[in-house]
Each structure stands twice: as C-alpha cells, then as structure tokens.
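Cross-check.
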Amino acid sequence: MALDGIVISAMVRELQSTILGGRISKIAQPESDELLLTIKNERKNHRLLISAGASLPLIYLTEENKPGPMTAPNFCMLLRKHLGGGKILAIHQPGLERIIHFDIEHLDEMGDLCRKTLIVEIMGKHSNIIFCNSDNIIIDSIKHISQQVSSVREVLPGRSYFIPETQNKLNPLETSFDAFKTAVGTRPMPLSKSVYSSYTGISPLIAEELCHRASLESAQSANSFSETEFLHLFHCFELMMESVKQGDFLPHTVYRDKNPVDFSVIPLTLYDDSEKETFSSVSEMLESYYAKKNVITRIRQKSADLRKIVQTALDRSRKKYDLQIKQLKDTDKRDKYRIYGELLNTYGYNAQTGDRSLKALNYYTNEEIIIPLDSTISAQENAKKYFEKYGKLKRTFEALSQLIHETQEEITHLESIETSLNIAVTEEDLTEIKEELAQYGYIRRHAAGKRVKITSRPFHYISSDGYHIYVGKNNFQNEELTFKFATGNDWWFHAKGAPGSHVIVKSGNEMPPDSTFEEAARLAAYYSGNRAAQKVEIDYVEKKHVKKVNGAKPGFVIYHTNYSMVIDSDISQIKQL
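Predicted model, tokenized:
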C-alpha cells in the first residue's frame, strides 16, 4: 500500500523526536528523484531517505548509505549551497495531508540568518520534493511540473507554492458528525470509497478498516445506511482520529504466505487472522516492508524469463501428451484384428470366393461375429492382412506407451521446476534452477560446458519440540537432502501426487512427537504445488524406505510403505533459522 496521511503523521512524530534541532551535514542525490540527507543531532548522525519516485515514493530514517553520482545534479548542488549546515527548526504536516514541511534555518551569502522550507509531497505519481523561500516562493524542485503537464498547479522556480485543493477534501482531524454525515452519507457510492474520497490522508485500506470496526458492509452504497449506523461509524472514526492526535501508533506489517501485503501504524482488525510483525519505529517498518517487497519484485522480474521457458516447454509437452493419448486410442482396434485373423485361420474354409464377409463363432466370448472380407483375395490372405494390421498397431501401442510415459515424466519434471520458481526467494535459488534447465537442454549455457557455482541452501526450520527440519528449494536440493544429507532413521515428507519440496526431519535416532510430524507436514504442504488448497495430503516415511529410480530426474523417488496425513499449509508458527 502507499503511505497515507496517518502513516505520515506517525513519521512526523518520529522525525520530531530524532532530527528536530539537528544540523544537515551532508546532502546527496543517489537517484534522479531521491535525496539522502545526513543530519547530526545530539552527537549522533541520522540518514533521512526521501524518494519522490512515481512508483515508490517514501520517506524514512535508515542506516544504509547510498552512494551518489560522481557529479551531483543541479538540485542537489542548490540544496548544498542553501541548506548545508542548516538547522532544522520545525517539522510539521498540514492537516492530515501526505505532505511534510521541514523549516530550516541557515546563513546566506552575507552571513545573515535565513529561513527556507523543504517540502516533501508523498502523493503517488504526483510526488515531489520542493524547495521554497520564506515567502513561500518555489526556488526549485526535484521535478518540474509545467502547465502542459498539469493544469492544476505549476511547480516551477518563481511560482508560489500551494497545496492543490481541487478535490475539496475535508480535514479528518477537524470534523463533526453533521459534516461527516453530509460528506460521506449522501454519496451514491460504496461506503469505503465515500470515506476516503471525502477526507484527506485516508487511504482505501484505512477506509476498509473503519467499516470493519463499525461492522458495516464497505461495498454497500453510502447513502443507504441509517442515522444510527452512521452515528456508530462516526464514533469509530472519532476514536481512530483521536489515536492519531495522541500519537498512539503501532507500526506493523501484515504478512500473507510469508509475503508482506500491507503496513499501518494503527491496528488493522481486518487482518486479525494474519501474521503480523511489529516495529519500534515507523522507519523500521517502512524500510523492512520496502526491502522485502523489493526482493519479491526483483526475484519475480529475474525469474520471468525462466518462467516463460518453463511455461513454453510445459505447453508443448501437454499438447504432445494429448496428441499421443489420442493416437494411443486409435490402437484399441488391434486385438479385434488379431481375433479376425485367428478366426479366419480356423473358419476360413467356410468362405466362398467373392464373399464380402464371414459369420463365425468367437470362441473367446462364445458370440457370433461378422468378419469383413476383401472379396478379391482368399480367406487366408485376409487373415494375413488382419495379422499385419494387428502387428502394426501393437508396435504403435508399445512405442506410444513408452513415449507417453516419457512425456508424463517430462511434464512432472517441468511442473516441479515451476514449483521451485514459485518458492525461490534469492537470486542464488534462481541460479540453481537455471543450472537444472541447462542440464536438461531447456536453455543454453553461456559458457560451453561451464557450471556455475551453487551457493543456495535449503530452508532450515526448527520445530516447537526442537527438531531441525530442512526443506529443499528445488530438485537438486531435494536430491541432496534425501540421499546425501538424511540418514536412515530421519523422516521424509512430501505432498502426495503433487510437485513440491522434500522435507527432512532430523530425528537423531529418536521418534519425534506428533507436533513435529504435523509441522513438517505443513512445510511439505506449503512448499508444494497444492499450497493454495485448504487441506493437502502428505506422505511421510522413514528415509531408508525412499529409493532413487535409476535414470530418473533429480529429486524423483519411489516408496512403497508410508504413512499419510491431511493437513493445512499454515507455517506462520514454525520458526525459520
């Protein structure tokens, strides 16, 4: 989600407690739309990262130092000239807007004290960093917005700075029930949309949360609710805004399937059933969220080419399989032709020259059948012809059966690689998958015969009872875990009839408790192609009963004696090392 006015409010409070009164010692512009300010306050250096990127605008304190270009951009040089050594006098947010003002005192060329304002607007694709003088005149901005780009407001040197008010939104920190009812309750649109389109700083997520707290249907038209329902909604809104005014914030991130999906500084009852991670500061929350999101995005981007290769190969193999099945069905007549030939050898003497058919008793079923004949040749020659057809179809059947088996194995192999791509979390994981695709001829190596160095390692968990559990990320790791790492009495888990990871529980020659078996089964369910299912069937067995098939693809095994359980794929309570 984007930073809303409430998160900005929490950020302002954090900045007021850390950098207010500090002096700007360094100014860098690592990217064209990004600033990194180093502020010294109370003998400690703080780095403030500000980005006006259209896709990911943000602001937070960070420990990370990002190098700038060899030649500083003009906007950076201007800020260094005016704000280098400047003291931060005030940090404030107008209303609940997604805007932060930094009032900074500095010495001008004559040595006189001056006051300037650095304005950070976190507004999606309209985000900007604007530098103004004490008269609110724009000196410069990190993005220039001309009349041709925006008819609402020009952001150019010499123009007066103002907050665009074209949306006529209200300040949620200063509202009454009558104003709330008029603004929200008269619109023929979904209730949540009416809330966030009526008040500044309220995101769709917060509007949904408000409706959830009031137990009102967010998709229902806002003008269809009763006075009592709106009074209850307003009370929930008041309580929420009171928390904002008091600075009662709880920075936290919400996870789904181990992936961050949302963040907020107020409790999200919408996600009561989801995993949450709390933070001591808004900056920690934002830095963690964006770092994890960036990793996921980067892995998705880097795996896109591999996914396309696997999907293309899968589509081709599935089409080939369907065609082979259709061709195999055409060989079903082979036994009929064999019986025709045998019956003609037995009863062919009853056929007369020129007969187009022969009625004979099928001694396999004890039923009479009619055998079509070629009237231009004898019964014995007809029998020979039927045996030839039978032989040809039999050979076709045997060849197709083998090809279908090979195609099925190829599909299963590709599906397992597809699952590996879905659970890859690092670039090293992708390197190992790429190596497997190269070994089996799906992609070419860049260097002839040269193997890449593999640094990816299996997932490592520890059960609630203290048993170590290992999960293979791909077929190579599955092979390694099962046949080189695990010992005979360790326990082996895998999703039944689905591509997925081999899961090994190191038992240490002991019988693990039921809770460890259940946790290992959940990991096998989660790291499988059936992850999205509510319940997944898991096979488990001692490792010594798992066998490798000669010539099989890596990670492909057989076992004949096993236990099974049906379980969910929730691994949120299992500790990962």
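The chain has a mean pLDDT of 89. The radius of gyration is 35 Å. Passed to J.P. for a second look.
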